[in-house]
Amino acid sequence: MNNKDKRNAEVLCINYDDSFKKLYRASFDSLVLYLKTQFRSCPQQAEDIAQNAFEKIATRKNPGPIGNIKAFLWRTAHNIAISDIRSKRLATKYHAETKNLYGQEEEYPLTPERILEGKEQIGLAVQTLRQMPEQRRRAFILTRIEGLSHTKASEKLGISRPAVSKHVARATSDLYTALHNELRSSTKK
């Protein structure tokens, strides 16, 4: 780095508050503009990302000198913006998949009644599981709740893999019947 570059470059250390304040005043607005144009961020989001970039630099664990502080700041903001975009894409994808899997959330609002209904259904499922023969209950719990394969469950239970499959099928049928009967009896009331 030549002398001119040294004069132009800001060296940021946590101990040098004046250089950080100077960098903030000189760069904040242009960094926000960069974020708005490059990432099509709304003004508030661009300001939040710029603020986060300054905060990350100010709270670095190794606050040694940085050769080109402005480039470092821009790269930090760029990385935060990319991370933010990825997070939003993932959240949107998750929301869409959940919506497809469970239906429109407008049709299934989370209300106190639905929560109570869910708790009652879980209680009925637990009661039904307790009433099952031990091998059937254990096979169901190992495969459906603990996530073991039928082969691993058969090894753990000391029975054949087809026997585990039959136990799981019967347990599933028992649970379905119990929940279905409860639903029918509650709608008749």
UniProtKB/TrEMBL annotation:
Taxonomy, superkingdom: Bacteria
GO molecular function term, any single one: sigma factor activity
InterPro entries per record: RNA_pol_sigma-70-like (IPR039425), RNA_pol_sigma-70_dom (IPR014284), RNA_pol_sigma70_r2 (IPR007627), RNA_pol_sigma70_r4_t2 (IPR013249), RNA_pol_sigma_r2 (IPR013325), RNA_pol_sigma_r3/r4-like (IPR013324), WH-like_DNA-bd_sf (IPR036388)
Every RNA polymerase sigma factor 70 region 4 type domain range: 127-171
Stretches assigned to the RNA polymerase sigma-70 region domain: 31-89
Gene Ontology biological-process entries: DNA-templated transcription initiation
4Fe-4S as UniProt keyword: no
UniProtKB keywords: DNA-binding, Sigma factor, Transcription, Transcription regulation
Family under the similarity heading: Belongs to the sigma-70 factor family. ECF subfamily.
Protein name: Putative sigma-70 factor, ECF subfamily
Origin species: Pseudodesulfovibrio piezophilus (strain DSM 21447 / JCM 15486 / C1TLV30) (Desulfovibrio piezophilus)
